[in-house]
Amino acid sequence: MSIFQELKPPPKPSRRRRIITIVSVLIVLIILLFACTDVQGEASFVEHFVLPPSHFTYKGHSNYVNAVAWSPDGKRIASGSSDDTVQVWDPNTGTTYLTYTGHATDVAAVAWSPDGHYIASGGLDRTVQVWDASTGKHIYTYMGHTDAIFSVAWSPDSTRIASTGNDGTVQIWEASTGKQVFAYSQQSARGAPPPWNSVAWSPDGTSIAIGGNGDVRVLDAATGKHVTYYGFHGGLVHSVAWSPDGAYLAIGSASFTVEVWKVASVQNVYTYTGHTTDVFSVAWSPSGKRIASGSADGLVEVWDALTGNNVYVYRGHADIYFGHFTSGSGGAVNSVAWSPDGKRIASASSDTTVQVWSAM
Asked: Edge to edge, what strands does the sheet with 149-154 contain?
């Protein structure tokens, strides 16, 4: 062997071998990436941040939005906020039709009369105010409560209003005059009656469901007499809602659950456990087939009302994306409402927005 043969460099690896090596390294890196990171979550984050949201966002409020209600014809939305206002606006364009400024402090509850003519709003100023939904003209102020109002509901025939709050009373009164029909409170061994956080009128107008610290109670809407109770969990109830046919009650609570009860048999049909924080609001779809529930972590979960199977999770208030930089508890969903045609959902949040999105 000559010296020239000894100094000759070794042959270079073939191009095919180089390609195989590079591909092998890439495959290993991809496997490690999937194993060590939440790729789906990161891809979702990038998608949310870069692409414009598919929902409509109303940004007329300057503080927490605590309550939201659709007009019976589905053409307008009323939203109550800690900026002390109720705003009535177009759910398609966001055009603000009127701003009601009659409350002295936070507005915690808003309800549209079934005939579409009036809005009742309750606040931390201890009043429920009734006003014209088209003009904002004040009709009268109900002052029967001695503490903050948390919830208001109209009777199906638009003749009466139920209101409840931190003074521990549920009061029923004539919508046209403000004359009280009855007041109900629960006795407490500690003195003052516990507050009621939610009130809902049954679709047939005969019963009222109320929820607070303990079981949900049902009252006779004419007399205020206690009929029965649901829940048996003894926890803090944030929201109660009747199914459109009046056969079931949905109960959202601080136990991170929504319990669905059969009214006639006082039977717990199932308990929805998809949430991981307090459930602040529960609403049935007009068809009665689905339920939407909003929670303190900014999520709205939509699920099958018959089986409890999750349909999808709406993250518009929970995620960070371009134009929305609030997440987690800062985007808590305080109220959810289905449009009368069942095609859209409006969700009100502590992120100061109301978002309107497809109910799929």
From this structure: 149-154, 160-165, 169-174, 180-185
Per DSSP, the three-state class of 41 is helix
Check whether 166 has a pLDDT greater than 80: yes
- Report the alpha-carbon angle 243-249-255, nearest 5: 130
Q: What angle do CA 77, 107, 154 make, to 5 degrees?
A: 60
**DSSP sequence for 188-204:** BTTBSPPPEEEEEE-TT
- Give the torsion sign (CA, 287, 117, 199, 332): positive
The torsion angles phi and psi of 122, rounded to 5 degrees, stand at -120, 145
* Residues 320, 45 contacting (CB under 8 angstroms): yes
pLDDT value, residue 12: 55
- The answer to whether the CB of 131 falls within 8 A of the CB of 123 is no
- The tokens of 323 are what? 């134009």
Identify the band that residue 214 occupies on the pLDDT scale cut at 50, 70 and 90.
Answer: confident
Whether the CA torsion 53, 58, 64, 69 is positive or negative: it is negative
Burial class (CB in 10 A: 0-12, 13-18, 19+), 32: exposed
- Element of type H or E holding 141: strand 138-142
Neighbour tally for 233: CB within 10 Å: 18
C-alpha 56/C-alpha 48 separation (Å) is 14
Cβ partners under 8 Å of residue 130, min gap 6: 118, 119, 120, 138, 139, 140, 141, 142, 161, 175, 178
Give the closest residue to 128 by CA, choosing from 110, 116, 115. Answer: 110
DSSP-derived pairing of the beta strands 128-132 and 118-123: antiparallel
Q: Is the pLDDT of residue 232 over 80?
A: no
Closest by CA to 71, choosing from 84, 86, 50, 53, is 86
The span from the CA of 213 to the CA of 238, in Å, is 9
Contact 344, 91 (CB under 8 A): yes
**What architecture is the 58-358 domain classified under in CATH?**
7 Propeller (2.130)
Q: Specify burial of residue 105 (Cβ count, 10 A radius: 0-12, 13-18, 19+).
A: middle
Whole-number Å distance between alpha carbons of 58 and 81: 12
* 337 backbone φψ class: left, alpha, beta (φ>0; ψ -120 to 50): beta
